[in-house]
Amino acid sequence: MMGDSEAIVQSPLAIRGLTVSYAHRPVVHSVDFVTPPGSMTAIVGPNGAGKSTLLKAVLGITRRLTGEVRVFGQPVEAMSRHVAYVPQRSSVDWDFPATVIDVVTMGLFRDLRWWQPTRHRHRQRALESLSRVGMEAFADRQIGQLSGGQQQRVFLARALIQQAALTILDEPFAGVDAATEKAIVEVLKQLKREGRTLLCVHHDLATVRDYFDHVLLLNVRRIADGPVEEAFTAANLQATYGGRLSPMQLVRLMEPVAQGESRGE
Amino acid sequence: MSDFFMFSLVPLAVAVVIGMTCALLGNFLVLRRQSLIGDAISHVALPGIVASFILTGMLASGAMMLGAGVSALVTVVMIELIRRLGRVEVSAAMGVTFTSLFALGVLLLEWHDAAGVHLDVEHALYGNLESLIWFEGTGPYALFDPLALAELPPQLARVVLVGGLVVAFVAVFRRHLVLGSFDADFAASVRARPALVDLLLVSLVAVAAIAAFEAVGSIIVIAMFICPAAAARLMTDRLGAQIAWSQGFAVVASVLGYVLAGYGPGWLGFDASLSAAGMIATVAGLLLLATCLWGRRRHPAEA
After folding, report:
1. pTM of the predicted protein model
2. What is the radius of gyration, based on Cα positions, of chain B?
3. Does domain A6-254 have CATH number 1.10.287.110?
4. Where in the numbering of this chain does the ABC transporter domain appear (chain A) (predicted)?
5. Which of B158, B162, B187, B245 could make an S-S bridge to B232, C-beta 3.0–4.6 Å?
């Protein structure tokens, strides 16, 4: 049992001893992590480090072997309403017969019983979410006609409509152009200003300092976690990536971000 | 006119109801790229039905349904086992499963034939749509005569019941089905139980396939699970419209196929008629071909 300490009761996602295995091989091994409320946390690690698997196990998509997951101190099963999920864009078939607004209203799944039709006010909420990501003009567009960046923004709008305390994102910047990346980061930072928590699998080490305030370094096991200034260190990164980062790379990553010329623009 | 009520009304109604039922489920199979599961399940109904004959020694439809149901479950489990243990694609696992089980059914049938009871492969494939005769259906007034209605072939009531069950399932679980078909991970994250809904969908496919198998044979079931929905997908990019198109195609294929089988050879000057089930399946295939050639949405959108 997880203790009911103050930190766990306040955290929108506290994980203890989480292990997931495929074919008797642990993919995520005994991970403990308490997400600070109101933080914007990056999960960083090499390919195959179990980042996506960790998220899927937390969300109940993949079965966990052992471990506890708590949302505000309660078991996640009872609290999943407070957690929104943005899967990898490439995980779905975009040739599905649906429009942009159809996909966003899927985020209202929990609010609609089977006998309730999707009404004007639901459409209105979907349009509001779309306007937050700058996609309201595309509401009636067939999803197959969207660019990668537009698809990602539609997925984000579907999570926004859930108005969850915690939003979990799996590589939201994969395969999107720099302008879209900037737009998505702005939406995420706005969410953070509203007091919501964000947990995000992130691949680009160069932008961790710009975008995030906390970091979880993961390679099957938890290597380190904490505020970016404390945990995102050369030593921890080398431990996470098994010493495969070059000294040049590390030096560049350790530079504090200069005001006004942040990367990723 | 009395000919129509006696000989054509019931087969036509059964064909239309089965066509619409299978096409409705087929929409979700096509979207999930699982069209072959309908094929697999309707094939393996055969060994199940034969086994139930051999065990009970009679043509009781309850036992037949049970036998077919058990073999449908065996199929689903077998597909999953082959896929996991053999580490092959699901379509390969389905192909292996349904061909081998159907072959087993044929062997059982032959053995059974030796015992001198009537049941043959042709029957299993094409059913006996034309034999659904309504002896009391001597005219339109029979439709309002309770005594005559009581004499309707029981297959009609059975397929209507299954059709109603399928419509209810799709109506209640429409959001689960759409969400699970488009994005199963997200569906799981909002507790839409995609795995459970998937199992329910496959179970209903089995129920529909078995009910239809008994009345009309497996050819029509396979055609109706795939053709109307696949053709409808080529006509539109809206799911609601796709379902409506699939229902329209199913009705057209059933009616046109039935009429062509019964009267087509006569129009050409031959004194014969063809298998209605075979003709319905053929028309369904031709409709799909036509939408491939001229459908509005035959090219996937450029991403």
Report:
1. 0.86
2. 20
3. no
4. 13-245
5. B245
